[in-house]
Design brief:
about 300 residues, mainly alpha, three-stranded antiparallel beta sheet, two-stranded parallel sheet, about 55% helix
Length: about 300
């Protein structure tokens, strides 16, 4: 069996990378930080026109008619570009919430568990909730992922999002994978450009080891995420998705940390983008399925398989 992306899948991925490079480059990213506007409505509609949100809807319903493997490839690109906004929730809402598929409606979700919700001020609807909850803003680790805490009893119940949880976790893992691959690129590029003692710092063994470790983590996560996307419709289950999320979360956080180390003091400045990847990775690690939840699920599956 050939698990390499097809030519059509590669073209789909390249088209989204081109779109995001044109519409969400570094200047747009920095502008969002300055203005506090984390959802670009024009870009959201462009993504809708490109089929980003309606990708898995049947063609008969106005969608693209593709599957989870293609969705994972596109979300990987969105994670690489640090595209902000409730991308996963809006994608999951396509076909359920009017306007979500076309990018005309921004949909968020209580995907952090309990009473926390992201991008509530910029969202038009909340997945799994019949009405917009009353909430107050709380400080977020990521400046491009604003948080609100719903008042007591106004959050979503766990079973409200149960039908979406596995797919939400896998798409979030794809976002983390894209971030892990991007910080690897940034580290390798900087290691080849920055010189110390008359040599590129990438020539030093300690830096080589950091970059090699980043590559191993990213490729392990890529394998798990791609495999879970391919097998989800067949023999796969929540355990494979939980493992993919666990590996992708670890790769995104650890790679961002190591990228900071490769950049040295420069990496800790506001002007560098590395810290944004780390902060986003911290938030995503708590979305849809946490490490603790993934470990419990995997342990349960292993226990069930061991019992005769």
């Amino acid at each position: 069996m050939d698990f390499q992306p097809t030519e059509d899948q590669r073209d789909l991925k390249a088209a989204l990378r081109d779109l995001l490079a044109r519409r969400h480059g570094r200047e747009a990213l920095r502008s969002a930080l300055d203005t506090g506007t984390t959802v670009d409505r024009d870009l959201w509609r462009e993504l809708g026109e490109a089929g980003f949100f309606a990708l898995r809807l049947p063609e008969a319903d106005g969608g693209v008619g593709l599957g989870l493997p293609e969705a994972v490839l596109l979300f990987e690109e969105a994670g690489r570009a640090l595209l902000p906004g409730p991308l996963v929730a809006t994608h999951l809402a396509a076909g359920t919430v009017p306007g979500a598929a076309a990018g005309a409606t921004v949909v968020t979700a209580f995907d952090l568990g309990g009473d926390l919700v992201t991008h509530l001020a910029e969202a038009d609807a909340v997945l799994g909730s019949p009405r917009r909850p009353e909430a107050e803003p709380v400080r977020s680790a990521d400046p491009l992922t604003p948080l609100h805490r719903a008042r007591s009893g106004a959050g979503a119940r766990a079973d409200d999002l149960a039908p979406y949880r596995d797919t939400g976790a896998l798409l979030t893992a794809a976002l983390q994978l894209g971030s892990a691959l991007r910080t690897l690129e940034l580290a390798v590029r900087y290691a080849g450009e920055r010189e110390q003692f008359g040599r590129p710092i990438g020539a030093f063994q300690a830096v080589k080891h950091l970059c090699a470790g980043m590559l191993v983590r990213a490729e392990l996560a890529r394998t798990a995420v791609y495999a879970a996307a391919v097998t989800a419709a067949y023999a796969g289950g929540p355990g494979e998705i939980a493992a993919a999320k666990l590996l992708a979360d670890g790769a995104a956080v650890a790679n961002a940390r190591d990228c900071l180390q490769v950049h040295g003091g420069m990496g800790f400045t506001w002007e560098a983008d590395v810290h944004l990847h780390l902060k986003r990775a911290w938030v995503r690690a708590e979305q849809w399925r946490t490490a603790g939840e993934a470990e419990e699920l995997l342990a349960g599956e292993l226990l069930d398989s061991a019992v005769p």
